């Protein structure tokens, strides 16, 4: 079932699609939007300059070559990986299909996608994914979503029953204010129903997982206690009576010290920092709240992840940069304690 509503300069269209359509889109290439020429000069130049760039990175490299690095945080992943990330974070996916040859693309990219208003709003509320409309998954998405005008944007939500829902789509250039208004209205109209369903599923999973973990922990703790009692009983049986009281005293001292260490660990000023990379990979590490921002950069550099050259760390909504000038500031001083999620933005 499909509902279409024309409002101002955009079309609202709610369509439910099975996930497997995204795996078999090559079988529907004769359907919907006509095939676009993959040899557009800008795309051909990109292919010549970056002959080994992966399909996941092609859109981002093409966009930044033309418009620079100021833009929403587009994840360089397969589309279904972006959907999975959105599910994990209870967010929607913002899809942008890039058509370099379309006359509306330049003003939209320059004035709207590079707008600080749009960047901050998308980074805070969506998992953003982009593709080139004439190739790869970008072309397949254009076919599946029946994109007939560009620039093309859509809001996609993961749903239950192995389906996704296209909640909103816009065709043609819109201003930053118009785009944010459209996205905000979509969140308000559709967000509560989808999130309620998702939260119910997640609560059930959390409850089952917690019960399993508690049962497993109790079982292993019981086994360890039984083994320790057996070892102590056997060792005590073999010792002279004069040594048994000394062993008991040592056990009491050891138990007291162990409890003291556990209490000390609980009061340590630990900060958990989670870093999300452009390819969707996430890494987490604990720091002391008095550690410097420089320590987070050293941790990232130590990972030696391919494709990471110059970069800076950012948080979203409001967008805040933790760059060269903040390296010697403390984690607590930069309001990242007791936990924070940061994005790695390539420069």
TrEMBL record:
Taxonomic lineage of the native organism: Eukaryota, Viridiplantae, Streptophyta, Embryophyta, Tracheophyta
GO molecular function, one term: ubiquitin binding
CDD domains attached to this UniProt entry: UAS (cd02958), UBX (cd01767)
Organism: Dioscorea zingiberensis
Name of protein: UBX domain-containing protein
Entry's Gene Ontology BP terms: ERAD pathway
GO cellular component: endoplasmic reticulum
Residue stretches making up the UBX domain: 266-344
């Amino acid at each position: 079932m499909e509902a279409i509503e024309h409002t101002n300069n955009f079309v609202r269209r709610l369509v439910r699609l099975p996930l497997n359509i995204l795996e078999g889109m090559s079988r529907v290439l004769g359907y919907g939007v006509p095939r676009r020429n993959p040899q557009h000069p800008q795309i051909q130049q990109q292919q010549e300059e970056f002959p080994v760039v992966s399909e996941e990175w092609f859109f981002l490299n093409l966009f930044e070559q033309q418009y620079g690095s100021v833009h929403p945080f587009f994840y360089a992943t397969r589309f279904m990986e972006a959907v999975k990330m959105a599910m994990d974070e209870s967010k929607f996916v913002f899809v942008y299909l890039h058509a370099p040859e379309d006359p509306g693309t330049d003003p939209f990219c320059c004035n709207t996608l590079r707008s600080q208003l749009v960047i901050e709003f998308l980074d805070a509320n969506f998992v953003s994914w982009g593709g080139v409309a004439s190739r790869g998954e970008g072309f397949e998405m254009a076919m599946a979503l029946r994109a007939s005008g560009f620039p093309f944007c859509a809001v996609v939500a993961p749903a239950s029953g192995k389906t996704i829902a296209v909640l909103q789509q816009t065709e043609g250039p819109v201003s930053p204010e118009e785009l944010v208004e459209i996205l905000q209205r979509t969140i308000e109209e559709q967000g509560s129903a989808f999130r309620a369903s998702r939260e119910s599923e997640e609560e059930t999973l959390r409850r089952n997982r917690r019960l399993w973990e508690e049962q497993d922990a109790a079982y292993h703790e019981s086994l360890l206690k039984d083994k320790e009692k057996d070892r102590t009983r056997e060792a005590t049986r073999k010792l002279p009576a004069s040594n048994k009281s000394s062993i008991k005293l040592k056990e009491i001292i050891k138990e007291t010290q162990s409890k003291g260490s556990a209490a000390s660990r609980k009061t340590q000023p630990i900060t958990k920092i989670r870093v999300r990379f452009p390819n969707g990979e996430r890494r987490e590490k604990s720091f002391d709240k008095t550690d410097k921002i420089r320590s987070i950069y050293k941790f990232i550099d130590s990972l030696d992840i391919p494709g990471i050259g110059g970069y800076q760390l950012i948080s979203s909504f409001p967008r805040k940069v933790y760059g060269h000038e903040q390296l010697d500031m403390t984690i607590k001083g930069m309001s990242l304690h007791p936990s924070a999620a940061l994005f790695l933005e390539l420069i």
